[in-house]
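Case study: CBPZ Carboxypeptidase.
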Amino acid sequence: FSSPGFQVAPETKAVMKWLRSIPFVLSASLHGGELVVTYPYDYSRHPMEEKMFSPTPDEKMFKMLAKAYADAHPVISDRSELRCGGNFVKRGGIINGAEWYSFTGGMADFNYLHTNCFEVTVEVGCEKFPLEEELFTIWHENRDALLNYMEMVHRGIKGIVSDKFGNPIKNARISVRGIQHDVTTGN
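Here is what the predicted structure looks like once written out:
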């Protein structure tokens, strides 16, 4: 996330520091301009390749998270291909970010690679810059999907790692056989 000529904005640095200080496990980035849910990796394994499927070791979990949002969204889950986002209908309203288009420096990739936080990107509506009078409708279209997504925080591994005296162990590494991506315990 640092390369020649690439400056990280102060507010982005602050969010990165915040993410490293609090053990978040789930987040979503909300964008406009389409109706689809994308998941990491957003940056292609082969930078010169566009639209290249680039899964993380947690591909199944990310697909489940993205589907939890998409399936609860009344328009994303609509099977009509003649609407905004209709080109994602056959994919269930979700796509691997790099398979849609590859870009570097995304927060979803950063979160996965440098924190315990799994993040998806939600394109919440067809307008990139919706008018104020459209916001109420967009909120209602996304409310239940956001709540459904938030409930996904209870999926996966959870618990307390403790020593033989019952004291929590900070920064213990958790590994799952078959998944080449460890997470660490919080405070």
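For the exam, be able to explain this: The chain has a mean pLDDT of 91.
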